[in-house]
Write a structure and sequence with these properties.
Blueprint lengths: L7 H8 L7 E9 L4 H16 L5 E7 L12 E7 L2 H9 L1 H13 E9 L9
Length: about 120
């Protein structure tokens, strides 16, 4: 099953998350044939121009080598740091982001997005 956007329930859940510290978004991406990878590069560049001043950082981005557990195959994995969930909420609701969102939609055939919060003593620092 191809997935590109959160369900209504997932969106409601993320919009109600407490704004209590940094998060990482793990993106697993399968690109559309005929230019999806290039379109995503354009999106990623514009995304970072928009979001880096707000404290968003690309922690890692690279070609997926293989899936060791499971059967889904991905082209790329990217891990993006957000200082807090409100940074993400403000982004998706902004006119500036809406102007570049089509690049992601055109580029990505399938995706999974996992939000993680650091646990343990490091998260308190």
């Amino acid at each position: 099953m191809s997935l590109l956007n959160p369900t209504k329930e997932q969106l409601e859940q993320i919009l109600s998350m407490p704004d209590d510290g940094p998060l990482a978004f793990i993106n697993m991406l399968k690109f559309s044939p005929n230019g999806g990878a290039e379109s995503f590069r354009q999106y990623a560049e514009k995304f970072m121009e928009l979001m880096a001043p707000k404290g968003v950082k690309s922690l890692f981005q690279g070609d997926a080598v293989m899936t060791l557990v499971g059967e889904e195959q991905w082209d790329e994995v990217a891990i993006v740091h957000y200082p807090c969930i409100s940074t993400w909420r403000d982004m998706v609701q902004s006119e500036e982001y809406q102007q570049i969102a089509h690049l992601r939609a055109d580029a990505v055939l399938d995706a999974r997005l996992v939000i993680v919060r650091q646990s343990g003593e490091e998260s308190a620092q």
